[in-house]
Design brief:
The chain is of the alpha/beta class. Helix 8 packs across helix 9. The strands form three sheets. Strands 7-1-8-9 form a four-stranded antiparallel sheet. The chain is 34% helix and 20% strand. The protein is built from nine helices and nine strands. The chain is globular and about 55 Å long.
């Protein structure tokens, strides 16, 4: 088990580990205890009751966070023809076809999201071993394989995130920065949970969302009261 430093231990003492925090209180607390010199990312970790080994219980999707992520998302688009111009006009950082594929094959991965049109996927699929483990392979399920590249690029630039359940049944996503107002973080958290519920597998039985934690990059996690989140979602 990893040993934590004095700063982390001191922060841990400010959190009641036996308590489930209401969302508003949790956001207030993580902002209060953030103590690093950089603007930490606020992250959610959600444990789901699905069995990710079963194809019909794979949870993945995407959501545009209404208040963004507080960082610039670098978007690469692999396409050809008219969609190249569309991608450039929408603000994509890198646009190309064979040249980009060759760069990625050579180890270049200086982007945060990759969008592709359906016609280039047979070629791009050969890079599955490079892109797949990093969560960068475009997919129709997350809308990153599309003919509508302009819209998707704009959404990614605005703060669209992709998520998928891992082998242990957990989903991890960023929802903003510590410097965000609590109201902005709250909007992003609620938007994510709404989409997570929207993509619940139809074959899923039992409890879908088992527990959820919120934390900052360098801080301890706080357990969330799921009922308080569901109640606030109903009011939105």
């Amino acid at each position: 088990m990893a040993k934590h430093g004095k700063r982390y231990v001191a922060l841990l003492e400010k959190i009641d580990k036996s308590k489930e925090y209401q969302l508003d209180e949790a956001l207030k607390t993580i902002k209060e205890i953030a103590s690093t010199k950089f603007d930490e990312t606020v992250e959610l970790a959600v444990e789901l009751g699905v069995d990710p080994r079963k194809a019909d219980q794979m949870v993945r999707g995407s959501v545009v966070l209404p208040r963004g992520l507080g960082k610039t998302t670098r978007v690469a688009v692999i396409t050809r023809g008219e969609e190249e111009k569309e991608a450039i006009e929408a603000g994509a950082d890198y646009v190309g076809y064979q040249d980009l594929i060759e760069k990625i094959r050579g180890g270049w991965l200086e982007f945060d999201a990759l969008v592709a049109t359906p016609d280039v996927m047979p070629e791009l699929a050969k890079l599955g071993k490079v892109l797949g483990p990093r969560g960068l392979m475009p997919s129709p399920k997350t809308g990153t394989v599309t003919k509508d590249v302009g819209r998707v690029v704009r959404e990614l630039k605005m703060g669209r995130i992709e998520f998928r359940v891992d082998k242990t049944g957990n989903v991890h996503v960023p929802v903003g920065k510590v410097s965000f107002p609590e109201s902005a973080l709250k909007e992003n958290v609620l938007a994510f949970f709404q989409e997570l519920i929207n993509v619940r597998p139809k074959t899923m039985k039992g409890t879908y969302i088992k527990q959820a934690y919120i934390s900052t990059t360098m801080g301890p996690s706080i357990k969330l009261d799921l009922n308080s989140i569901l109640q606030q979602m109903e009011r939105v």
